[in-house]
Amino acid sequence: MFTRFSDIDRLFGTMDLLRQRLDNLYTDYGRPYGTRWLMDEGFLRANLYQTGDGFEMRLEVPGMEKESLDIKIQGNYLEISGSRDQKLPEGYKVHKTERGNGTFSRSFTLPDDVDGNRVEATLKNGVLYLTLPKSEAAKPRQITIN
Length: 146
Prior knowledge:
The chain is an alpha+beta fold. Helices cover 18% and strands 32% of the residues. The chain has one helix and seven strands; from the N terminus they run αβββββββ. The protein is flat and about 75 Å long.
């Protein structure tokens, strides 16, 4: 009796695996192998730190130029998008590509609103540094009692 349940369970597991692979087949259609990772959450790995009057975010963007990145902020919503296009020199033949081409977009909801006019961005050694000062309305205020 347990063997039958085990067989059925294995059958459903195999069907689920097949369904996942078919789903990936449709989403990856037309893209060269190796670009799927760009859409994963793992791309643009980010660290967010709170400083005294704002935040600092560091994002991994190896091999990207500043012209291929687009940063938008509105209130506490931050969106970073871009594209990577690695062109091969004439006569090169691909044996393996782990860093893919394509576009990406990632968004973050920050803990507080940010003053978009004072945001600074720096790209250094494949890391994008964002300095995100809090808006005046988001800063704590001392209230005096009358």
